[in-house]
């Protein structure tokens, strides 16, 4: 009887340690999920990105990784002001964010653009500087787009913030990654994706291989989304450490809401 009891305890402890090890493994694999600002960004953007990806045949995990990288998880001041979380350049007739005279907070280590926030800081904490014209599309509505007025508009209007980000995603899908693009990398990526979907269906867009390859195809070389060699590595690292492949798959194919998918590890 004693032997059986001891054996059961040993088995229980073994199973307990196995569960802990598995949990630690997944926690380390998706280590960026521990940061609240990362969760907040993807909570606000995952469903929208998956919707656009499904509609326009784009790999959603890659789209989310690029958005996280380009916007600093939504914390970059240009992204906050304009809603341009993909850092898309302005086309000929687009409004773009002009040069701005804004302060940098030494205590918070960031650029501040909201007048209400600026008032909360001491003069000694702020370093004012002329910020150059961004050349990025400003997704704020008229009459504010392309002006220095109401820089804080999207901060306080959630509906406008949501619509601006959706417009940014849609532009990426309908103006950038298209088969008539003058940028060879974008055109070839679009043709490649179309062939994959025609052969395997949209499910192929949720695979790790396609998301990784898409990032490699559109960046890291001249005349691409970002010419820097480190850019694809950074985007792929975000995709891996946030667990965006798993997240998008859980939402798409397991019908999970964001919170359930985020906690699934």
Residue share in helix: 55-70%
Count of individual helical segments: 12
Q: What do we call the CATH topology of the domain at 32-89 and 151-262? A: Lysozyme
Strand order, biggest sheet? Answer: 2-1-3
Q: What is the CATH class of the domain at 32-89 and 151-262?
A: Mainly Alpha
Distance between the termini: 38 Å
**C-alpha-based Rg, rounded:** 22 Å
CATH architecture of the domain at 32-89 and 151-262: Orthogonal Bundle
Question: Number of DSSP strands?
Answer: 3
Instruction: State the order of secondary-structure elements, H for helix, E for strand.
Output: HHHHEEHEHHHHHHH
What structural class do helix, strand and pairing data support?
mainly alpha
Average of pLDDT: 92
How much of the residues is beta strand, in percent? Answer: 5-15%
**What ranges have pLDDT less than 50 throughout 5 or more consecutive residues?**
14-26
Question: What form results from the Cα inertia axes?
Answer: globular
Largest sheet: 3 strands, antiparallel
């Amino acid at each position: 009887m004693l032997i059986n009891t001891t054996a059961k305890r040993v088995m229980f402890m073994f199973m307990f340690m196995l569960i802990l090890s598995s949990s630690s493994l997944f926690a380390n694999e998706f280590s960026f999920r521990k940061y609240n600002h990362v969760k907040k960004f993807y909570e606000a953007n995952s469903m929208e990105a998956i919707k656009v990806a499904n509609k326009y045949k784009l790999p959603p995990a890659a789209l989310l990784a690029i958005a996280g990288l380009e916007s600093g998880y939504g914390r970059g001041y240009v992204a906050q002001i304009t809603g341009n979380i993909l850092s898309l350049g302005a086309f000929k007739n687009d409004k773009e964010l002009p040069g701005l005279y804004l302060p940098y907070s030494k205590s918070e280590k960031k650029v501040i653009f909201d007048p209400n926030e600026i008032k909360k800081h001491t003069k000694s904490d702020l370093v004012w500087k002329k910020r150059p014209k961004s050349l990025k599309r400003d997704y704020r509505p008229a009459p504010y787009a392309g002006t220095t007025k109401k820089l804080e508009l999207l901060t306080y209007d959630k509906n406008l913030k949501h619509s601006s980000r959706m417009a940014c995603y849609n532009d990426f899908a309908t103006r950038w990654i298209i088969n008539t693009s003058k940028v060879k990398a974008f055109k070839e990526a679009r043709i490649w994706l179309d062939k994959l979907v025609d052969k395997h269906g949209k499910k192929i867009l949720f695979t790790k291989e396609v998301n990784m390859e898409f990032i490699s195809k559109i960046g890291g070389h001249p005349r691409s989304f970002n010419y820097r060699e480190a850019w694809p590595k950074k985007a792929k690292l975000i995709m891996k450490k946030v667990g965006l492949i798993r997240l998008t798959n859980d939402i798409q194919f397991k019908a999970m809401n964001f919170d359930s998918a985020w906690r699934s590890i």
